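Incident log, structure service

09:12 report received: a user says their structure output differs between two submissions of the same chain.
09:20 pulled the input from the user's history:
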Amino acid sequence: MRAIRHFSPGNLHTILLLLGMAMLSMQASAQQLQTKFGCSVTRDENGEKVIYADGGEIRLNGNKVEAFRWESAQHRSLHGFDCSVDESDEPVAEVSQSGANDSWRITLKDAAAARKRRGYDFFDHGKNCSIRLQRDGNTLSIKPNCPALCGSRIDFTELSVDLKTGTCRYEE
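09:34 re-ran on a clean worker, output below:
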């Protein structure tokens, strides 16, 4: 009873403010992503053995990119094709959904400059770079549309990573 006697409207304001801050804090933590992955698969494509290999590290805190590195390779019997992106390409994150199923869209501050810096002048792949990250429970789907950071290859490989086990699944 003593606590009720000292209750005032000012205390209510403080309690509501603290609850609001706690809810924002919970939302922010739900919009965090930390993962490292290394994946590979060998496929038979029209009688030719093709090896796909991807490795990366992603650390996002809401709209802040703390680390973003992804190398995506496709090796054939006589040649290989690579795509890569890292912090030097100035990735920008945008949270497009929050909660249990977080979603981010990663773009580059200047995709044309990043492409030129890599020396990819010999094929015109455009200046687009957008990578969609969708977390559904323990599964992170990585959906690239980033031809600007690929040499002679069309785009990065689409894949999903189990965030608990590190197991990868390549999309067809």
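09:41 both user submissions now match this output. Likely a transient worker issue. Closing.
09:42 reviewer note: Residues 1-30 form one domain. DSSP finds three helices and ten strands in the chain.
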